[in-house]
Design goal:
This protein has 378 residues and is an alpha+beta fold. The chain has 14 helices and four strands. It has two domains: 244 residues, Multidrug efflux transporter AcrB transmembrane fold (Up-down Bundle), CATH 1.20.1640; 83 residues, TATA-Binding Protein. It has a four-stranded antiparallel beta sheet with strand order 2-3-1-4. It is globular.
């Protein structure tokens, strides 16, 4: 054997042994025929399944647009956000709330008001009146108490009720601050997600600086122009994610859709959102992102099993997390006595249902198609 043939044979042997030592990681999905029941249905009808969250997103946008055109806001703001008076009257007696509301509407025809019972489990412990009158006007306050006294045939003194007042300018200012805070939260959330799931490149180091500058502009500018600029920057980041990092885009859009759908359902239920409700929406961002990150991490970073097996494993774990939170908030809503706690519980309960839809019917389908097109896991 010549030296030339010997070198060629050694190169071939070395290459063959090296390939044998490298484990092959398959990212190809399992055949849908290997799954039966709901799993097989989920894999076979991916294109039809994703239409459900898309339809819900379009429905949410239409509802918010209708809400904006009719009321001037995207949600029904309560007294703490709009300004007005919150009157709380403890009572263990049976009270005709419809009669109270009817008499108040006659006395205050131009004001927005709600009357609701305060309950502890199944026992009524009082009622609450929210009305957008000027709390600093003693005549309006006296008129409100007079109507309640007339309906209940009683004489309420200052110690018999609690009266909280929120000025309209303070409520509007607080709501504007909350709106900017939500946008800043989405900016930094997008940045963290892209740093973990995004492609390597210069933009991975530029994005944190852009998010920081945009956040400072929003929090310090406090004007319509800075709000518009901040929103434009966030939309531009989403467009970049769609073109360069589909996993990052899927996580952010699923969290955003979760918030939009929850607001739309809250509007349809006729709920008045207070400061506590806004806090619940901020909590929903965290609840939504954790299941999305769980899904993306297992599908993109984990090498065990096939891609479809990893998706179903994520659904099992994430679904258990969501159902646990759903049951807890559902029970908390009926057990809690405070209307503030009830508002938080019902908003989180609605948001968790929306989160399960957007995570497993939108994010998971987008992520699966992305892996199939790319053919490898990052």
């Amino acid at each position: 054997m010549s030296k030339r043939q010997e070198k060629k044979w050694l190169r071939w042997l070395h290459q063959d042994n090296r390939d044998a030592l490298v484990p092959e990681v398959s990212v190809a999905p399992s055949s849908s025929s290997s799954f039966t029941g709901m799993k097989g249905f989920y894999l076979r009808y991916q294109k039809q399944i994703i239409l459900v969250p898309i339809f819900l997103i379009i429905f949410s946008l239409l509802q918010l647009g209708f809400q904006w055109s009719t009321t001037g806001d995207i949600l029904n703001k309560g007294v703490s956000l709009k300004g007005g008076v919150e009157l709380t009257i403890p009572s263990h007696q049976v009270v005709d709330l419809k009669n109270i509301e009817q008499q108040l509407r006659v006395s205050f025809p131009r004001n927005d008001l709600t009357v609701r019972a305060l309950k502890q489990v199944v026992t009524t412990v009082g009622f609450q009146v929210d009305i957008d009158i000027d709390g600093n006007n003693p005549q309006d306050r006296a008129k409100l108490i007079a109507v309640i006294n007339n309906v209940l045939q009683t004489n309420l003194k200052e110690g018999d009720y609690t009266l909280n007042t929120m000025g309209p300018s303070l409520g509007a200012s607080f709501f504007a601050e909350v709106r900017r805070a939500v946008l800043v939260a989405f900016l930094f959330m997008s940045t963290v997600i892209y740093l973990y799931f995004g492609d390597k490149g210069l933009f991975k180091w530029i994005l944190p600086l852009i998010s920081l500058a945009d956040s400072l502009l929003l929090l310090e500018g406090k004007s319509l122009f800075t709000d518009i600029m901040g929103s434009v920057v966030f939309i531009a980041i989403l467009v970049y994610f769609l073109r360069s990092s589909v996993p990052s885009f899927a996580v952010v859009i699923a969290a955003l859709a979760d918030i939009l759908l929850t607001i739309a359902v809250v509007n349809l239920l006729g709920m008045k959102v207070s400061i506590a409700g806004v806090a619940a929406f901020l909590m929903l961002i965290g609840y939504s992102v954790d299941t999305d990150i769980l899904l993306s991490t297992r599908v993109l970073k984990n090498k065990q099993g096939t891609m479809d097996e990893r998706i179903f494993s994520s659904i099992k774990t994430g679904g258990l997390m969501s159902i646990t939170t759903l049951i807890t908030t559902f029970v908390g809503y009926f057990v809690a006595q405070s209307s503030v706690v009830k508002e938080i519980m019902i908003i989180i309960c609605i948001g968790m249902v929306a989160d399960m839809i957007m995570t497993w019917l939108l994010n998971a389908v987008m992520l699966r198609n992305y892996v199939l097109r790319k053919g490898t896991v990052q």
